[in-house]
Write a structure and sequence with these properties.
- By secondary structure, the chain is mostly helical.
- Helix content is 74%, strand content 1%.
- It has a two-stranded antiparallel sheet.
- β1 and β2 form a beta hairpin.
- The longest helix is centred in the middle third of the chain and has 26 residues.
Length: 340
């Protein structure tokens, strides 16, 4: 059932199903998050609350909880790790909004717009530190290794993306490296720590790592497509943000390649101007969307996302059937289906 049909019929989305299954766990995670973002330095909890308390689906920590249950874990360490995952994600968002000079996040003004760049960066650092506190307290060196490695990979991906802004010749391979690092790495880590806590074998750990990685890639590809054809409510940010920032995402890479292959000098000149020169006019976003649709670039991006979602579902085959397995498989479908 498509997202539109679910909404129309009132049927729960896969995220809502997971949240219902994990209600007690997520209450515990939320309590940890709110406790650990406190500080006697008033600006820290105020700024953190603005972002962390703004809602969001808590998708990444939810994956950690679901992965732990899927793996048969019986303890409470997954609560700390899920909270750590959310802190890592929130810290990267605070840093990203400064780098991208964003004005909207989760439907609200960004923290950097309200408090300034320096406080946003420093509170992001605070949340990173809190995440590492929580990892250490879990007393799993393997989980600490997975999440700490993911944190460094995310930072590398963000720097690589920053270095690629305005590079109209960015290849699809490089783009995939960027999204694999800046987005999929945390999804992968969030999923992998479940079987690690449950002390399952390497095959199960790799399976969940693959699930998270493929889900994260699908998620980012859909976000990149939605930037040119979705709704602000679906994105939680303004339409065309990537375009205005000169980011090379897969839709533009597809369209620019088509323009070169067809010797379409007008289209080549347009993409070069708006991306490389960042000389944009008010009408350029509308024209960009027109070109992307003409070349089938948005649909091609969504097709790529569907393939990754299929691979995520396949990775679950190693686990016995359960309501958690079904919910995670449905989540992979939903990540792509949410565009409709």
């Amino acid at each position: 059932m498509s997202v539109a049909k679910r909404i129309k019929t009132g049927a729960p989305t896969p995220i809502e199903t997971l949240l219902d299954l994990a209600a007690d766990d997520m209450d515990a995670v939320d309590a940890i998050i709110r406790n650990r973002m406190q500080s006697p330095v008033g600006m820290i909890p105020d700024l953190a609350e603005h972002l962390v308390g703004a809602g969001g689906k808590r998708l990444r920590p939810l994956i950690t909880i679901a992965s732990a249950h899927l793996s048969g874990y019986q303890g409470t360490g997954h609560h700390n790790l899920a909270a750590a995952v959310e802190f890592i994600h929130s810290a990267t968002l605070l840093h990203d909004d400064v780098v991208d000079t964003s004005s909207k996040r989760r439907g609200k003004k960004t923290a950097n717009l309200i408090w300034g760049n320096a406080p946003s960066i420093l509170v992001g650092d605070f949340l990173f530190a809190r995440a590492f506190n929580l990892m250490v307290e879990t007393e799993s060196m393997k989980a600490l290794e997975i999440l700490s490695t993911a944190s460094s990979v995310i930072a590398e991906g963000e720097v690589q993306q920053l270095a690629s802004i305005g590079n109209i010749d960015m290849s699809e391979s490089t783009y995939r490296q960027v999204i694999g690092a800046k987005t999929a790495a945390l999804f992968a880590a969030a999923a992998e720590v479940g079987p690690v806590l449950a002390e399952l074998n390497d095959k199960h750990q790799r399976a969940m790592q693959t699930y998270g990685q493929e889900l994260g890639l699908a998620f980012q590809l859909v976000d990149d497509a939605l930037d040119y054809g979705g709704f602000e409510v679906a994105l939680g940010k303004s339409i065309g943000d990537d375009f205005r920032e000169g980011k090379m995402t897969l839709p533009i890479i597809y369209a620019f390649d088509q323009a070169k292959n067809k010797n379409d000098s007008d289209a080549v000149a347009f993409w070069t101007r708006v991306v490389t020169e960042n000389a944009q006019e008010d009408v350029d976003l509308e024209h960009a969307i027109s070109l992307l649709r003409k070349e089938g670039a948005i649909e091609a991006t969504l097709k790529a996302a569907r393939l990754h979602a299929d691979d995520a579902i396949e990775a679950l085959d190693l686990f016995e059937d359960s309501e958690w397995k079904s919910a995670l498989a449905e989540l992979a479908i939903f990540v792509v289906d949410r565009v409709h």
